[in-house]
From TrEMBL:
The keyword DNA-binding applies. This is Helix-turn-helix domain-containing protein. It comes from Flagellimonas taeanensis. InterPro entries: Homeodomain-like_sf, HTH_AraC, HTH_AraC-typ_CS, Tscrpt_reg_AraC-type_HTH. Residues 185-283 form the HTH araC/xylS-type domain. The keyword Disulfide bond does not apply. Keywords: DNA-binding, Transcription, Transcription regulation. One of its GO terms (molecular function) is sequence-specific DNA binding. Pfam families: HTH_18 (PF12833).
């Protein structure tokens, strides 16, 4: 796996269904990454931005809408964009939100086929992107079941739209080595369920029946990170979510994320996010909603 590609740990828990990230930005600074969730990304006023999906790299038009399948590396870069007011709305949902039994029903045929094609990334036409603009920009203002129904309706409209184009010449299976490991899944679930407390290397090594040294080599090979780095990235992912969504202060979030002192939390947060927690909270413009 390319060491420059970042395996993103999204803040979606197993009990969540969707993440809606609605913001206005001046530039893109998140590295090329992949994750097991589906991602629908809408950009408006972004002419000149460069999109990277798999081995596809293109400068985009003013408006675009892309669906990226699980574990396909992707990202957007400022590149030649001159706008200082780029609208970006990102919707992420679990790869098992629509299970096989549901997708096997005739009424879901178009959506099922679209989700399968998204393993190489799908760029939708300018026409459907413009037609759906108002509805997509309203998504972050909708709650609960109404949101689910509207997202389902949007996915159906996309699935039946014309002039879709697959972007990458290869599929997301290149990164499936991360997901297709029962031990990695066990580690992933355990860290997400216990990150609020101290997790020792000995404890998690015993969970997967390995010695501490063997386990550290195993997780480094699979994720590109040591156990401590991987655990801290999970904690900072949740911290970022709480900084935006909750009324908790930095100190409260620090302890809730499993850090035993705020100085250590600030140091690790800045190392991962390239800014302090306070700066992150202050500079963030937009809405983040998890349903």
């Amino acid at each position: 796996m390319n060491k420059n590609i970042h395996r993103e740990i999204t803040p979606l828990s197993q009990d969540d269904s969707f993440l809606v990230f609605d913001r206005v930005k001046k530039h893109f600074d998140f590295p090329i990454h992949f994750h097991p969730e589906y991602e629908l990304n809408f950009i408006w006023n972004g002419k000149g931005v460069r999109r990277v999906v798999g081995d596809s790299m293109e400068e985009i038009e003013n408006i675009e809408l892309v669906l990226v399948g699980p574990n396909l590396e992707h990202g957007w870069e400022t590149y030649n964009c001159k706008s200082n007011k780029i609208y970006e709305i990102t919707i992420q949902f679990h790869n098992d939100l629509f299970d096989e039994k549901l997708l096997s029903r005739r009424i879901f045929k178009s959506i099922k086929e679209m989700l399968q094609r998204s393993n190489r990334g799908i760029l939708f036409s300018q026409k459907i992107s413009k037609d759906l603009k108002t509805r997509i920009m309203a998504l972050s203002k909708i709650d609960s079941m109404d949101y689910f129904m509207e997202l389902l309706s949007i996915l159906q409209d996309l699935a039946t739209s014309r002039n879709q184009r697959q972007l990458s010449t290869y599929s997301s299976s290149i990164n499936d080595v991360f997901e297709n490991s029962d031990r990695i899944k066990m580690v992933y679930d355990f860290i997400h369920q216990n990150f609020e407390r101290k997790i020792t290397l000995a404890e998690i090594s015993e969970l997967v029946n390995m010695s501490p040294g063997t386990f550290n080599r195993f997780i480094k090979k699979r994720t590109g990170r040591t156990f401590i780095e991987y655990t801290n990235e999970t904690r900072i992912s949740y911290a970022s979510r709480w900084l935006i969504e909750s009324n908790m202060n930095v100190s409260e979030i620090s302890y809730k994320c499993g850090f035993n002192n705020i100085a250590n939390f600030n140091r690790i947060f800045k190392k991962i996010k390239k800014c302090t927690p306070s700066e992150f909270k202050e500079k963030f413009e937009g809405i983040k909603k998890v349903l």
